[in-house]
Amino acid sequence: MRAFSRGFRDELFELMRWRRDVRRFQTAEVDGALLARCLDAFSLAPSVGLSEPWRIMRVDSHEARLRVKQNFAETNADALSRYDGKDADSYAALKLAGIDRAPVQLAIFCDDATPKGKGLGAGTMPEMRRYSVVSAVTLFWLACRAEGLGLGWVSILDAPRLARDLGASTDWSLIGYFCLGYPEQEDDTPELARDGWEQRASALEIRQV
Amino acid sequence: MRAFSRGFRDELFELMRWRRDVRRFQTAEVDGALLARCLDAFSLAPSVGLSEPWRIMRVDSHEARLRVKQNFAETNADALSRYDGKDADSYAALKLAGIDRAPVQLAIFCDDATPKGKGLGAGTMPEMRRYSVVSAVTLFWLACRAEGLGLGWVSILDAPRLARDLGASTDWSLIGYFCLGYPEQEDDTPELARDGWEQRASALEIRQV
What we know:
Largest sheet of chain A: 4 strands, antiparallel
Oligomer: homodimer
CATH topology of chain A: NADH Oxidase
Radius of gyration of chain A: 18 Å
Number of helices of chain A: 7
Largest interface: A-B, 100 and 100 residues
């Protein structure tokens, strides 16, 4: 029996409130033991059938990072071309990835073919394996922020090309490319809201059936 | 600038350690204000382009619950038929959903067609919207456990049939069916591990490129 205090619960929500998708990083290195401690969140994450289908690559080499950077630049230029007028101007002004500076960069995949868990829970919804990886990433995100580290999730990428460029197994699908480091600034408001791109909904609607 | 103490970080990992996928519930009701407080986690969750694509249905009516129960029973029987020998015996002995007793039941969807966020970040990876819902659910899961509530994620379902049965919009895809209530017991080890179905990996592998 493990109970949590009101004070802890309040601070947990404070942590959620101060978690950001970070795109602007300091160049300061991240201590290896600190990073390992944050990555421990993966081993506590939920996964369908205990399949633990996350596969993590740390992208350090100059060549690999260059390919990621090119992939993002081309994909982002294509995304920009789909907006018109004011939206195009707004989009062009956004900084959407910290690939240029983030000291730690991780490509995280889902192994769709893992035998672990013997397929339990993933028969009719095989996407549950990918969702398990997303849950694990979310715990990792909180762990990072609790340590003062910022994480940025980059999805403006040609995912199959990135997987090929990094030599991932053909059974692996990219869940996201993650930039990690100390943020330039901290904020309790999403950067997209501060930049006027979109705002949070004012209330959560629940439909009853 | 919002920093978190070592004590808080340790307790955050304790929370992750005691989070479980719960299938055995007490019948005790969940207070409405308490549930609302946990659901506040959604409004702090990350979402691609600030699209906030989560759509939540609270399933209360006898008829709707009966349909979910039938859906699960048939899908689970089909899943069982795919195992042989010892695995089939083990699978049959598992309790995989708390639909029979959980006082609160939520069907959570992703609106794949939401205009919110203007498609940002979801051009090449439209699955990012669904991943956003999974991230939000993960924060909600932690919030629930911090309040002593157990959450169980049911994925052994015919998802399109469930969406139809509940009258979901055709643009919505089911992310999961969630059972919520006070757990019969608390544990720091997953039920699938206790039951011998699968164990957690001993270490997290990181490949460097």
